[in-house]
Amino acid sequence: MLDVWKRRPPEEANLFNPAFVASLLYEFAKEYSKQTGRGVPLTFFGPSLAAVLHRPTRSRLPYSTVTSLYEWLQDNEDILIGFAKRVQGISPYCKEALRFALQKETLVLSNGHSIQLGVKKGHFPANFLRDTTTETKDIIERNRFFARWFAKSGSEATIVAAWGVRP
After folding, report:
1. For residue range 84-122, what is the model confidence (pLDDT) as tens digits?
2. Domain ranges in the chain?
3. Residue 149: which of 75, 74, 61 has the closest Cα?
4. How many CB atoms lie within 10 A of CB 65?
5. How far apart are CA 85 and CA 104, in angstroms?
């Protein structure tokens, strides 16, 4: 259970702001759908957020989807230490952001446990991207990369298992 908004530490409130995290989820779903023509499996949101919001992991991600996810994980297996716990830790914020996005109709539930883009946009506007920090821009771009990488890396079960996460 998350603390009431007013009692959250400022760092937590800023980094895990439901609108910000919901926009990351929207951007992920948008990129994934562009690549696959399908909705994104709900199970992908936790690992993607745990990776891109964690600077040491984010800084080691490749810059091209030509790099095999599985080979990269094998070469960077130390990143998996504690990763499942980070996914578990980010889960309440992910759920809060997903509820926010569903309420705002930027994301919608689809077949099974799939999430698709809703009728309203939930992206980061150009003026936000222009005026934000370099780190925030990096989080957003690495999140988009993650969606493209997952889209070309195989089945949902295989990808999630490779990251050491259970749905």
Report:
1. 999 999 999 999 999 999 999 999 999 888 999 999 999
2. 9-162
3. 61
4. 17
5. 29
